[in-house]
Amino acid sequence: MSEGTMIHPTYTTVLNLINSRFPQKKTLRILDYGCGSGYFLEIFGKTRIGEYYGYDLSEKSIQCAKKTHHNRNVHFFHIQKDSASLLKEKKNIDVLVLIGVLQYMSNKEFSALFKNAKKLLTPNGVIIISCSVDHIVYRAMNVLHIFSPHKLIHRKYATDTLKRAGFGVIDQFERGILLSPIFSQLMTIFDILDKLIFSTKGTIGPIGKIMRGMTNILLSLEYRLPVDYGYTLFIMAGKDSV
User: Fold this and answer.
1) Which residue has the higher pLDDT, 194 or 240?
2) Relative to the CA of 28, which of 2, 118, 137, 178 has its CA 20 to 30 Å away?
3) Could you tell me if 7 and 44 are in contact, meaning their C-beta atoms sit under 8 angstroms apart?
């Protein structure tokens, strides 16, 4: 695994949601919106990929992804900020994944994204979201917007927006009550150091990889706590579940 010695529990949680929805299906058509350098593709496993489409705003990340992944059924696209309508071109997607994306989009942008998502998914298809959730304690930690300049997403607003777009929520929960917000902001600092020292662009640098490998172990333990309150909100919704 190139991004650390242990998988971040956000990704394993998304994988578990996919497996709960498609336990028997061998291959899936995946659309990864905000794919970065293709980390989720590495974790998911190419043997289960029928077709993979990765979209990202970072041209450097897409360049890194294309250098790493060469399968014929894997496709990466650099997109502009207001290009959610491009998703209309893809059809019969089983899973649309948005990991850590919504907090960087305007309300108008992700409303449009949800509407387009309903058109491109198969009848049994799902949209799976992870994002930073809006609780007063996390808002206080992020009050200066220095280390983590994204916004926080209110849980009810996210589910209501999905419902307005024609989705039914299948599952929703929060994880990462304390360590997740702390480590998330620390990783931003480590990534800045990587850029300054190693000039890394579009991918995680050596400092970030080492620190993620160390902290992912603790985060995985925190995610096991049976508490529906945390820094990361997970939602799985399907258009057949309305």
Assistant:
1) 194
2) 2
3) no
